[in-house]
Amino acid sequence: METTEIRRLIALEETHWWYRERRAILRRELRGLGRPGRALDVGAAGGGNTKVLVEAGWDATATDHCESAVETARKRGLKAVRADARALPFETSSVSLVTAFDVLEHIREDHLVTEEIARVLAPGGHALIAVPCDMSLWSPHDDAVGHVRRYDRDSLTVVVEKAGLTIDRIWSWNVLLRPLVARHRRRSSGGSDLRKAPFLVNAGLSAVVRAERYLPVKSLKGVTLFLRARLNR
What we know:
- The chain has 233 residues and is an alpha/beta fold.
- It is built from nine helices and seven strands, in the order ααβαβαββαβααβααβ.
- Strands 3-2-1-4-5-7-6 form a seven-stranded mixed sheet, with helices on both faces.
- The two termini are 33 Å apart.
- The model has no long low-confidence stretch (mean pLDDT 93).
């Protein structure tokens, strides 16, 4: 992701409906992982998710390939390291959790990233991954933010399992708003759709996406795929 997009993300993540609900999903998943340990947040941008990990008791380090993102995370009081997700500067079997939200789709050699995730995880450790789904949703937004691909369940499963990870769960998110997202991106004149929404629009979209917490829609097509996996060896 370009530096300008990372800066835009950082400015939005505290209030934007998309990022707020994704952090809520992360918090819920963390509660099911047992006692906090050492965690690595790969592709952390400014450290919004890393902050969630720290608040939940994890000894978390943010990594990103963009130096300005790393500097921003450090200014927020987070541990941060500049790193290529394909060659993480961490010891084998050294962490209990790896999070990688919106990372794999930016890297052509996505298998190298999942292999690195598996390498740094200790036996019994977990990975939480989020990726954009469905190439039919491809739009100028994907080009603007540097996406190489969007995933379906099969392609995400293959790249995760080939790395030696066992998938516990895979589910769709942003299902209810998928038609709206698809329509908006088809009509877009180009560029990223990362931008501040008017207050009432933001509140309304937040309410819709929060409803997915309680509705049986996670097996349907959405805009994002989430995956939780573990290392058994």
